[in-house]
Amino acid sequence: MHDIDELRELRDFDTGTPPLDDETRRRARARLLAAMNGTAGRVRPRRPVLRIALTAGLAAAVAAGVLVAVRDDDGTGTHRTAKPPATSAPAMRNVSVQTVLKGAAAYAREHERTVRPRDDQFIYTKEIIKETNQKTGATRSYSDENWRSVDGSERGWTMEIGKGWWSPPLKKGESVWPPQNWGTLRKLPTDPEQLILSIANEFGGRTTSLDGLGDEEWSQIHFSLAGLLKLVPVMPEGLRPAAYEALGMVPGVKVVPGQKDAKGRTGVAITYDDPTLPKGSAGFGGYFIFDPVTYEFLGFRDVRTSGDGAAMKTYTQLSYLDSWAVVDKVKQRP
User: Fold this and answer.
1) For residue 317, what are the CA distances in angstroms to 5, 90, 164, 283?
2) Distance CA 243, CA 277 (A)
3) Which residues pair with 306 in a beta bridge?
4) CA-wise closest residue to 49 among 8, 79, 24, 73
5) What is the pLDDT of residues 216-259, one digit of tens each?
6) Cβ contacts of residue 52 below 8 Å, gap of 6+?
7) Burial class (CB in 10 A: 0-12, 13-18, 19+), 79
8) 96 closest CA partner among 292, 264, 297
9) In this structure, are residues 315 and 303 in contact, taking their beta carbons and an 8 Å threshold?
10) pLDDT, tens digit, for every residue of 109-155?
C-alpha cells in the first residue's frame, strides 16, 4: 500500500507521548494534508465523530474528529491511542466476535430503513453526546445536528460537541474516506469479503484474496471500516450489515463485555488490538457497544483530550444516534 512510511511515522509520533492539544492537532492535520496533496490544502471538519475520526483516502491522519479532503489517488492512516473503559458492570456470558457482529448485521438487515434520497436533498442526523471529565467527574451532554448534501455538491452544516459550522462541498478531484455522497456509497460492495477487498484495492492494493493481506493492510482496513461505521450513520441498503460482518473478519478485533452506553445500558463492546502497534495500545475506533441479547448497536465509547500540559483535560465520551431523516434543505428538521 502507498504511504506506509508516513502512516508509521504518525503512529510512532503518538505512541508513548502525552496527547496533543487541539491547536497542535490542527497544525499537524494541515501539514499532513499539504504533504499528501503537494499543496497547502485546506483542512475542514466534515462531521463529528466520537471522537477519533478518519481522514483522507484510506483512513488518513486523525487527531480529533475531522475528515480531510484529499486527492483520489492518495491515502494514509493514523490513530490516537484510547484508554480502555472501566468494566465495573456485571460480567456477561462469553460471546465471540463473530456472534456479536453477525448478530449486529442480522439485526441491521431486519430493521434498516430503505431510502432512496434525491441528489438535491440532505441527510439529517441528530447525535447525543455525553462527555465526562475523567478527573473531576463532571458531565455535560450535547445534541449535535448535521445536514449532509446527498450528492456532495452543496455545503452542509456540521456540529461537534455543541459547536457548528458550514462545511463546503469538495473541490474537483478531491474525495474523502469514508465517502460522504450517496452515489459513491451505493457503489461499495454489500458482500463483506468484497467490501474488504474493495477498500484494500481502492487505496493502492492489488489483491484478489484476503490471504494476501498483511498486518499493515489489515490495520488500514480496520481504520476504514471503523470510519465508515462511525462517520456514516445513514447508508444505502445492505452496506451497514456488510460493514459489521467485514469488521468481524479483521484479525485483532475482540469482545469486551460489561460496557455501559450513554443511556446507562450494559452491553457488549467490540474493539481492536492493532498488531502493528506496541502491545497494550488501543486500536483506532474506540468501542462499538451492542445489546448483549439482540446485538442492536447502542453507541460509541471513546476519549477526547483538550488543552496541554497541566491544563490538559481528558474526557470519556459516549454517543448514540438519536434520529435521522432525509430533508429538502439545510437546517430543515423532520
Assistant:
1) 31, 21, 18, 16
2) 23
3) 313
4) 79
5) 999 999 999 999 999 999 999 999 999 999 999 999 999 999 99
6) 62, 64, 65, 79, 80, 82, 284, 285, 286, 302
7) buried
8) 292
9) yes
10) 999 998 999 999 999 999 999 999 999 999 999 999 999 999 999 99
139-173 as b/e: b if 16+ CB within 10 A: eeebebbbbbbbbbebebbbbbbeebeebebbeee
User: What's the grid cell of residue 258?
Assistant: 460489561
Nearest-angstrom CA–CA distance, 147 and 291: 28
Count CB atoms within 10 A of the CB of residue 129. Answer: 25
Handedness of CA 331, 227, 199, 59 (dihedral sign): positive
The angle subtended at Cα 292 by Cα 290 and Cα 296, nearest 5°, is 40
- Please provide the distance, in angstroms rounded to a whole number, between the alpha carbons at the two ends of the chain: 43
Cell matching residue 308: 496541554
- Beta strands 139-149 and 122-133: pairing type? antiparallel
